[in-house]
Amino acid sequence: MTPAIRVRHLWHRFGAFDVLRDVTFDVGRGEIFGFIGPNGAGKTTTIRVMATLLEPTAGRVEIDGVDVMRDPESVRRSIGYMPDHAGIYERVTVREYLEFFAEAYRVPPASVVDAVLELTDLGRISDKVVVTMSKGQKQRLQLARVLLHDPKVLILDEPASDLDPRARIEMRNLLLDLRGLGKTILLSSHILTELSDVCTSVAILERGQLVVAGPIAEIASRFEARRAGAPQGAPEIGGASAAAVAVPQAPRRRVKLRVVGAPEAASAALSTAPGVVEVELAGGYVYATYEGPESVVAHIVAHLVHAGVGILGVEQERNELERIFLEATRGEMQ
Amino acid sequence: MSAEPVATAEPAQGATGLVERLRQAIARHSSAPNPIWMREMRQSARLTRTPFVLMSLTIIATMIIAGVGGSVMQTQRSDAVGQALFHTFFSLAFFVVAWAGPAVAANAIASEREGRTWEAVVLTGMSPKTIARGKFLSAFTAIASYVVMLAPVGALCFLFGGVDFLEVLIGYVYLFALSALFVAFGLAISSKLATSRGAIMVTLLLSVPASATIFGTFGPGLGQAVHGLWERVPSGAPVWLPMAYVRGELGVEYVLLLFVVPFVVIAVPAWFLYESTVANLTEPTDDRSSGLKRWFIGTTLVLVLAALSAMIPLITGDQILIALVADTTLLLLFVLFCVSVFMGEPLAPSRRVRYAWDRSNVGRVSRWLGPGMEPTFQLVLGATVIALALVSVGGLVREMFLPRGSTSLRFDVFARFVSYFGGFTVFVIGLGAWLRARSTNLFGQRIVFGVILGGLAIVPWIIALVLGIALRGSDATLSFACASPLFGFVLLDHSANGEVVAAGFVMSVIFAGTGFAALGSAFRRARGIVRAWEERQDQTDAAFAAEDAALEAASRNAASS
Ligand SMILES: Nc1ncnc2c1ncn2[C@@H]1O[C@H](COP(=O)(O)OP(=O)(O)OP(=O)(O)O)[C@@H](O)[C@H]1O
Ligand SMILES: [Mg+2]
Q: Which residues of chain A have pLDDT under 70?
């Protein structure tokens, strides 16, 4: 089965500046794919090519097996694209807004609008005028719009960027529901935490170049293996051979500690603990970054106990995505 | 999620298929009004300021009309008051639609770009034509509602007599037609610009002086001339046109002046504005050209027909010469405009366009009428030459049927004029193509185009003037100005000096030669660029094909092992 999205050797140039340089990756069917990169990395540019809105300088993109340059009309029928910071007509109601797009897509408005309203949980406010809605509600309305024609692939550019934590959680749940309906979802972000627990695969883009791409677990284990000192050629990641990234030999992780008394005392003790490379204090907690296997935590705890620090709690920070991101981009960032 | 796109029934084959398609098109239009129009109507219904704007407009208009009526009534008879009110009302209404129309329309598309709602609309697959029509209908509805609100005020003139019901009715018909034209103008500007504020600024900057000029020339100016033709049309009246329908005398002039000219003057720009709006709404990689090229062909045809029919009422050879000169000049100005429009053509149709052509088996002629610099400039050149030839032959034929004893057409004068302007036209077309092939900065190239032609019009005269002073001015020094297109009019002088005539002939040959050379060079360059680009694309395609094959082989191996 062909992947839902195939991006091959994508180059794009604005003026004299190569915004995309040979970007290649796949998005498998039924995945929630995180497209991650700092501001200006080229995420939106790549996404606009996928959405048939921009013709790249070179390279090819296929959505559901159809070349976006060759047959943009049928690609448009199979994608739902939500631009970043897009506007909504302000003086229409939720229902009128959706009915307009349903008619524009030539789908029967009556049945489809109700279905979409229910799915996105906007049914209760369907007669509200858009201008009076909250950001989170507007964002859900945008998502409702791109669902009207029942596309197979959803392409969402920064869907959660302006949302408060609660709206973000609602959005996340909605995305999981949509995945349950068999949709493939590509979403871009520069905030890692907003994605970490829904994404199944990621691509990390930096300055127009792909750093790494693939299923999260696979990338993590590959990094792990490389750290363990396995001899390495050019890593083959998602068809991209461009990921010539300086991967550090030792993995870094963080533990969050809650201690009895002033955290400063614990901090001082920690700085001499084995394996610890960095100590931070925040919100009454002590965060220790260490190198090496997870068993180092046991040594840290022993060290603290030995130093007379009472420990109330130890929590391993398990944000795989964040770790991958930090490690993969370290070469560029330093 | 049970949303399934509505299955559009495949039309049957052959003739019944066409009928069926027509029927479906009609059904679609009558049952489903344009969604954009519907949405915008709902939006403006929620805008609370609309009724207030309309109300204040009516009150102001009533006050002006009442003021004019009152002051005229002091001194004049009742029917003069009626006429004064008629002219005041329709002049006022003209300026209302001429300023409000473009300003309202200017917002229409630019605001969607600015508010970032545009991409969503495009991606629904709605065609640029549907979008353009929806936007037009919304803006036109708004302006038409202004006009309708004003209607009771306009009815005041009846109270005093002096104007006919039919005159007022025709006045309204023109008011609506002009509103449509002005709305289309605002829409075309809006489709080009990225921000509402910019679009409104540009439209107002253009429409305020333009409406004043149009009012001055077509109103009192032309009214004076029409009064000379038909005495019963009041002299110098600004709103003479509706009156002329009632008061003019039937004849060829009646048809020409009241049907042919208004049709050409409204339909040709309206069609152009529509096509350029649609082109601007179409993505650069799609077919933006076919519509504009169809407009060009249609307009050339209309201009030729209008030129030929305008010769019918002429009675002397001198009049025919004047008509021919006017037609040729008009045609040249038209070509100048079209060349600057077509300087926006892509060098060749994009891949997307060619795929679409291949998919729907588009024929050679339609492809020639599609995007691409070479066919476009071929078309402009060919159509211009044919049009010039048709008009000239028309003049010669018309001369054969002149009444005995009237002056005959000075064929030699006409021939040197037409050959000079013909040569210059080829030069203009060549220059446009040459500049197009040289750069991708189309706006800049259009400015260069304008500067070159402007310089060409003026500089030779300065040279001739300087040389004339230096050489103690004989008539022959005029020939130094032969490179200026305005020199063509010097050639009209019946007693032009032999050197001047010779200079004109030489220059026409030089113009035509340069024009053809520039065209050739432009086409060669464009072909070279396109070929290089194609080769690169072919290489990438080959690489993709290899990769695909490798992937397939790998997956087959994996499956078999
Ligand atoms: N139309 C354009 N003309 C010129 N440069 C552009 C254009 N669009 C984007 N760029 C540049 O291309 C680069 C990539 O832009 P892009 O919007 O794709 O980044 P992004 O990854 O989406 O960033 P962000 O997180 O800020 O949305 C940026 O440096 C941007 O300035
Ligand atoms: Mg972006």
A: 1, 191-196, 224, 226-252, 317-323, 326-334
A143 lines ligand 1 (CB under 6 A): no
CB-based contact, A156 to chain B, within 8 Å: no
* Residue B42 forms part of a structural domain: yes
Ligand 1 neighbourhood includes A41 CB (under 6 angstroms): yes
Candidate of A43, A207, A210 to mutate for ligand 1, largest count of ligand atoms within 8 Å of Cβ: A43
The type of residue at B557 is: N
What predicted TM-score, i.e. pTM, was given to this entire model? 0.82
Contact check, Cβ <8 Å, A92/B121 = no
Test B285 with A55 for CB contact under 8 angstroms.
Answer: yes
| Closest in B119, B124, B544 to A53, CB measured | B119
B54 in Cβ contact with B153 (< 8 Å): no
Taking the CA of residue B93 and the nearest CA in chain A, the distance in Å comes to 30
Q: Which residues are CB-contacts of B154 (< 8 A; sequence separation ≥ 6)?
A: B89, B90, B93, B168, B171, B172
Tens digits of per-residue pLDDT, B482-520? 888 888 888 887 777 788 888 889 999 999 999 999 999
Q: What is the separation of C-alpha B298 from the centre of its chain, rounded to a whole number of angstroms?
A: 11
Q: Which ligand lies nearest the alpha carbon of A205?
A: 1
**Dihedrals phi, psi of B495, to nearest 5 degrees:** -100, 30
Say if B61 falls within a structural domain. yes
CB A174 within 8 Å of CB A180: no
CA distance A37 to A157: 12
Residue B208 to residue B213: CA distance in whole angstroms = 9
Q: Which residue of B has its CA nearest to A95?
A: B39
- In this structure, of A233-237, B229-233, B529-533, the range with the lowest mean pLDDT score is A233-237
B159 occurs within a structural domain: yes
Which domains does chain A show, CATH number per domain?
5-216 (3.40.50.300), 252-322 (3.30.70.100)
What six digits make up the tokens of A91?
């003086």
Residue B98 lies in a domain: yes
Q: How many domains does chain B have?
A: 1
- Phi and psi (nearest 5°) for A33? -110, 120
**Ligand 1 near A190 CB (within 6 A):** yes
**Inter-chain CB proximity A91 and B43 less than 8 Å:** yes
A190 within 8 A of A37, measured Cβ to Cβ = yes
Task: Please state, in angstroms and rounded to a whole number, the distance separating the CA atoms of residues B505 and B523.
Answer: 27
Indicate the helix (H) or strand (E) that contains A285.
strand A285-291
Q: How many contacts does A have with B, using Cβ atoms within 8 A?
A: 117
- Which of helix, strand or coil describes residue A2? coil
